[in-house]
Amino acid sequence: MAVYTDVAEGELGAFLKHYPVGDLLSYKGIAEGTENSNFLLHTSTGSYILTLYEKRVEKADLPFFLGLMGHLANKGVSCPLPVTAHDGSVIGTLAGRPAVIITFLEGLSLRRPTATHCAEVGKALAALHLAGADFSMTRPNALAIEGWRKLWTAARGRADEVEPGLAAEVDADFADFERNWPKGLPEGIIHADLFPDNVFFLGEKLSGLIDFYFACNDLYAYDVATCLNAWCFEKDFSFNLTKGKALLAGYQSVRPLSDQEKAALPILARGSALRFMLTRLYDWLTVPDGGLVMKRDPTEYIRRMRFHRAIKSASEYGLAEYGVS
Amino acid sequence: MAVYTDVAEGELGAFLKHYPVGDLLSYKGIAEGTENSNFLLHTSTGSYILTLYEKRVEKADLPFFLGLMGHLANKGVSCPLPVTAHDGSVIGTLAGRPAVIITFLEGLSLRRPTATHCAEVGKALAALHLAGADFSMTRPNALAIEGWRKLWTAARGRADEVEPGLAAEVDADFADFERNWPKGLPEGIIHADLFPDNVFFLGEKLSGLIDFYFACNDLYAYDVATCLNAWCFEKDFSFNLTKGKALLAGYQSVRPLSDQEKAALPILARGSALRFMLTRLYDWLTVPDGGLVMKRDPTEYIRRMRFHRAIKSASEYGLAEYGVS
């Protein structure tokens, strides 16, 4: 939520000459993204986002992220399209940092999405999974079980400061996941962070998906489970079954889930809740207060972990025609 | 340089229904202004700036600032036009704060303005002075000598920490200004803060003047003197005579300065340099490091004060046909 790097008009003008974006009319540093510096540009051909990548983004992963956005946009997914420079490159250098121009998507991210919005998100997620199937690059999920384990090792000693009993609770989850984490489910490109912040709407119509910087190869159903966590819980941590139904029906209208995927949803949702709890917990315990990174409460995800632990069947998420086992 | 207040899409949408701006397409918090929270809005009718006034702005002064912008814009000055709500009001309430929508001006503020840009600024400043002449409201300059004295009283004790000898130097200036500050020169509405940050260009053409939150009634020539300080010094603190000439010729092509105004320029420029030195010094000594207010080096203006003290005649600023006294 900050512009880290300042860019002078002269150097930006020189940089833009390498791209087919027309003449620069204005640019404003925008309070978006915690990892990068972002600017909204107006040019004679439209609006663009200029991103300067700060050190928290792995530069080696940029070709994957940008290639994926280009691939998805060309397949009709409403996501930003990286602009290719006249010399064919996508990643340039500005203010000493890797810099990229992407098309600007109009739309609003919603604080209070409705079931109708959840259905749209489900459809868009499935469309993203299908569109990514023939993307040629791969990237392992750095925040799969092994990555969680690293965060947990760093945070475990102080976990009970945040919530008494948390250390034992999470240890038990890890033991369970190491035995029972699903194998052999359909996998491919997932967004991995499709929270309301990263989805734009114009009215009830989804107008864009953004922020592909966690995208990776992993189980499609894990991405669905993350969306259940991100979209279907109310502020009081209750699960909104209507939203769950809408999201899952939307997804399945584009890509039906197999019985194995359905059966795996509760453990995947629990793992996904643990993943977001762990990154929040880690930041909570290690990032100084008042810094540029906004610290978010890990306990919101402890509540979700507990909810999912009590789920007996994926039908409780609102899966249509899925029998209670 | 920060967004202080976050605004949810739902409350913004409800707020905008009161204004004739069309449908909201997107909004981004922008890193602009140190006093307020600013958002760049795209709507179906164009681009706008939404400003939420935080506590550093005197709310009682808002009708003056906004009325002035409306007055000037209607007289053809390229400045933001406050949008009037359907009920005739200009100042609304959003997120518990006074909130205003103004039209967005395209343009770039320049780090390295040329003499051509300085001529444009001179012309625009004079046009602003003429356009403001029949504005019906008045606002005293809170940062005239009395205001400087308050800042100095607060900062004087530690002034020599910043520059040895500064306390004695500034005391002598105050004594001089109290005897010799010009009286009876033409006065009216001045911008009072027309720095490169607050002027937009598209190529060599001036496209907009912004940030009227220091505007007040004072001597026109004082505003000219501030522009000499703001536009005509190089990074090494040398005065660029070509830029000075261009700025003054530009100004005089629209509003000629009287001989009394010309003769007063050196003391006005010295006073203006003291004014910016004092606000910077005050922040330097009182604002904690790492806060949201960017602290700027007061010594840049000590250098300007000294330059102006050595000026024998306003011709040294580049005034055409003005004899050395």
Automatic annotation (TrEMBL), chains A, B:
Q: Which reaction does it catalyse?
A: L-homoserine + ATP = O-phospho-L-homoserine + ADP + H(+)
Family matches, as InterPro entries: Aminoglycoside_PTrfase, Homoserine_kinase_II, Kinase-like_dom_sf, Pseudomonas-type_ThrB
> What are the entry keywords?
Amino-acid biosynthesis, ATP-binding, Kinase, Nucleotide-binding, Threonine biosynthesis, Transferase
Q: Which family does it belong to?
A: Belongs to the pseudomonas-type ThrB family.
Pfam families in the record: APH
What biological-process terms (Gene Ontology) are attached? threonine biosynthetic process
Q: Give the main EC class.
A: transferase
Superkingdom is Bacteria
- The EC number on file is 2.7.1.39
Instruction: Enumerate the NCBIfam families for this protein.
Output: PRK05231.1, thrB_alt
Fetch the HAMAP family from UniProt. Answer: Homoser_kinase_2
Q: What's the protein name?
A: Homoserine kinase
Gene Ontology MF terms in the entry: ATP binding; homoserine kinase activity
Its annotated pathway reads: Amino-acid biosynthesis; L-threonine biosynthesis; L-threonine from L-aspartate: step 4/5
Q: Which organism is it from?
A: Rhizobium loti
